[in-house]
Amino acid sequence: MDKTPLLEIEDLCAQVDNKEIIKNFNLTINKGEIHAIMGPNGAGKSTLSYVLCGKDGYEVTSGNIRFKGQNLLDMNVEQRARAGLFLIMQHPVEIPGVSATTFLKHAVNDIRKANNLPEIETMDFIKDIKNISRNLNLDNDMLKRSLNVSFSGGEKKRMEALQMSVLKPCLSILDEADSGLDIDALKTVAKQINSLKDEHKSMLVITHFQRLLNYIEPDFVHIFANGRIVKSGDKNLAIELEQNGYSQYIKENA
Amino acid sequence: MSISEQHTVLNPILETLRQKGNSSFAKQGLPTSKNESFKYTKFRELNLDNFVFAKQEHKCCCNEHKLGFDAYEIVFCNGKLCHNHCSGLDKIEVLPLIDAIKDKTSQKYLNKSFDMDNFPFAALNNAYLEQGLFIRVAKDYVSDKPLALVYHLVANEKYFCNIHNVVVLENNAQLDLVEYYYHAGDIKAEYFNNVVNEFFISKNATLNHYKVQNDAFKAFHIALNVANVKQNGRYDSFCLQKGALLARNETVVKLLEEKAQTEVNGAYVINGWATADTSTYIEHLHSETYSNQLVKGVVGDYAKGVFQGKIYIAPDTAKINGYQLHKALLLSDDAVVNVKPELEIFADDVKCSHGSTCGEIDKEQMFYLRSRGISEQNAKQILITAFINELFNKISNPNIISWLKSF
């Protein structure tokens, strides 16, 4: 496997509402690797994903993040997305009056424009999203409806997986991608996500439970507690966690 | 501005109407904020002495289709009727108002739907009565395409465009009426559109009224629309206000008989120093009548949106539904929206509601769109468009929807 680093996080500290949530966090993800971050509620897992995406209100107080060798902190939200960062959100927001098709076409074209590429052919684009939605068991009707409005939990996650498939990011962050999914939907979403895997694409899977990791198999598992990684290992660490819980790690670091 | 500058062929009926308008306007003057129905809209910058009427002999070159969809088109240029492509229609009678008032029929309708002593600009409109149309759709006739009134402003002078239309739909008739106000001259042109539309909708008749006001940014635009709706009749309107320094679109609907219905919807999308005023007064004068209003605003820069909506429910009526909703998006810290919803209910068996929301563009939605690579500016535009597009769900004519979306 290519050992070129894609994402390098060094001594990252970040706060929300003047409260420090991420404390001296270190992590390097190389091209083609899948990393899982597991941790209890309130450990700062979602904060980490928002910090990486550059959301307002998530303030980096010290440390560095490099993405493809560039300083990620110099980029705004859309520049990070255009560089190849993608977040499957835990709670995708509802956007009344905007269909998935319309919105994704804007996204594809804004990304292409930033890379000096011409606008995508509408027919190619439609064909592409129809194929992907078939793989995800998403009704064509869902592509025309207002984005995420009165979608079930499963439909929302499948819509996120659809966007990931269209935008083909080099680093996908999956924030609790299994929440709200029944077992069949979980398999469908995981299958689609796995189909996007290749030696250049990396993933950061954030989850409470080991369940998702049965379907998206990680190369590395990190335990995240009190704002930092407290233990790293391979996929067996996730299985061990499932049996023993997080309490020993929280106590050690309290 | 003086009457002598106007059309010279006067007749006694017109003379009487003008005198009445003149004395009513003299009594009222331009409204101030003490006038409750003009509470938030200021007329300090409107100086009537500045305006002149366009000369009749003005050479007009606007005989071209501006709409982009098929319609029976009538063009006014600088406030004067200049092209009537509808004079030979069989089932839709279209006459210049000044010709129609010689006839007893039109006198049955003209100024019969409001008391001009309560509407200063309608009084002013009568004081200079000349331009406008009398339109009558024959019994049982369903128009195959919309009738469009295109108000074209080309010159750079301070023109006073004073229009009064009377539209009559006989029993079971149906018409889509389009009004399009736009300018093609100097963008700084300071003209004044003062419009009165009176609609008489007979039994089982339906009038769909679509208006786009896209005047020059220093223009004034005042419009009063009064609809009288009889049994099982329907008046549905949609007004988009985009231009003008000061624009007011006032709609009065009188639901006169049972099962009379109305939808009064609209949007204002303004910036700069513009004021856009949407005022409605829905009068439920009979049992089993229905009204619904949805008005949305997008206000940027230092602009001001005004929404005043009143629903009146007469005593001794029952089984009435009256709904009203206003939503505004503020795009800057200096943008203002003034809202005054009023319900006057004098009956018991009534379902009525009103609501108003006002806020900024949702930050979570912005983050979501941008996190997919969409630029901040495009993300904002997508959300604004979506906000306005909700209004088009109720419009059935796809040509008109795409026309409205083009602004």
Topology:
The complex is a heterodimer of chains A (254) and B (407).
Chain A: E1 5-16, E2 19-30, E3 34-38, H1 45-53, E4 58-67, E5 70-71, H2 77-83, E6 85-88, E7 95-99, H3 100-114, H4 122-135, H5 140-144, E8 146-147, H6 153-167, E9 171-175, H7 183-195, E10 202-207, E11 220-225, E12 228-233, H8 235-244, H9 247-253
Parallel strand pairs in A: 3-10, 3-11, 6-9, 9-10
Antiparallel strand pairs in A: 1-2, 1-4, 4-5, 7-8, 11-12
Helix pairs in contact in A: 3-6, 4-6, 6-7
Chain B: H1 12-28, E1 72-77, E2 80-84, E3 92-96, H2 97-100, H3 104-107, H4 120-127, E4 133-137, E5 147-153, E6 160-169, E7 174-183, E8 192-201, E9 206-214, E10 220-229, E11 234-241, E12 246-255, E13 261-270, E14 275-284, E15 290-299, E16 304-313, E17 320-330, E18 336-345, E19 350-359, H5 363-370, H6 376-389, H7 398-405
Parallel strand pairs in B: 1-5, 4-6, 5-7, 6-8, 7-9, 8-10, 9-11, 10-12, 11-13, 12-14, 13-15, 14-16, 15-17, 16-18, 17-19
Antiparallel strand pairs in B: 1-2, 3-4
Helix pairs in contact in B: 1-4, 5-6
